[in-house]
Task: structure prediction
Amino acid sequence: MSGCILLTGGAGFIGSHTYVALAQAGYDSVIVDDFSNACRSVPGRLEQITGRPVVCYDLDVADPTAMNAVFAAHNIDAVVHFAARKSVPQSLAQPQGFFDTNINTLLSLMKAMDRHRVRRIVYSSSATVYGAPESLPIPEHAPLSYTNPYGLSKLMGEQFLNQKARGRGGWSVGILRYFNPAGAHASGMIGEAPRSDGGNLMPLVAEVAKKERSCIHIYGRDYGTHDGTGIRDYIHVCDLAEGHVKSLDLLLGQGRSHTVNLGKGRGYSVLDVIKTYEAVSGQNIPYRFKPRRAGDVAASFADPKMAQAVLGFEAGRNLLEMCQSSWRWESAGKPMGPAMSATITTTPHPEMQFTPYLIGQSQYV
Ligand code: WQD
Result:
């Protein structure tokens, strides 16, 4: 397939890997990101990986004027909406901020899409919309609920988009429910680099391996799992990115809306992750058991059959590859400065004043 795809939050962890997968699949992409949770060196590194110039705008997706300028400047065929906050602990501490970012921004983006007659969107959702699963593996028709404001914001986003797809406006929507993304691009040039501690396991394990953190706190050792620690469905971020390409292919090819899980369909425990990371890094990873974490479930892993049937998607990479690629990225020191520079502008509209941020010259890097 081909076309021009707008990636909101496209400089972030999943967004940047999806940018690479789209380039490899023949799509052109435009990134918009406010860099609240992404490094300004990412566009330059994407240029190095893809060998092509990157078009990236530093702007707030909720800013209708700026977004109108982007849609007016590019012939956008579809949008992949990554721009959202995703930390469960932070959502418990700042629920209003999550509703504002995750819901109001989506509504503003949908208005801009309508205004420019762009009616294809892939939405970054999450397994948190299943709440505490009643049975495993989790199919897409499992009951939906939420145990935190983050999960509620994702559930509401799904409902808004499903309503749009049922309307007569000709919208097609791909809702992708991520389980636990992990790992990094094989080049070691892009990976997970949260600006704030989102509390996710693998980045924390990596910090211990790098001696930046003394030990991992394992939340709960008395779950009914094979080793008593929590089980999750970790999926390689490059597999996840490839799932987005397949979702776009379906939307642009057949205009067929869909909601699918993106997971491996099997779970790994906290101790499985720690032992595998020790093996690939050659580093000892000390840990201490702590009480269970509020909002955690014992085990969560996807039923991947719908993604296979609807998208022809299967997550092929295993936990070893996730840990190996993560360690390659982390031990390379998360290269922050690219050899090439990518121009990040604030808006493409010639009538609007903007200051191009050349990597290395920006006060943000
Ligand atoms: C994984 C396991 C913890 C940290 C969240 C979001 C989900 C997705 C991924 C966006 C659990 C244990 C963790 C630590 C630990 N985000 N753990 N010590 O909570 O499954 O999912 O992030 O899409 O939507 O809900 O991920 O990495 O925080 O935890 O023992 O220091 O590791 O208890 O069993 P989670 P996580």
In short: DSSP finds eleven helices and 16 strands in the chain. Residues 225 and 231 are 7 Å apart (CA to CA). The two ends are 35 Å apart (CA to CA). The first strand starts at residue 4 and ends at 8.
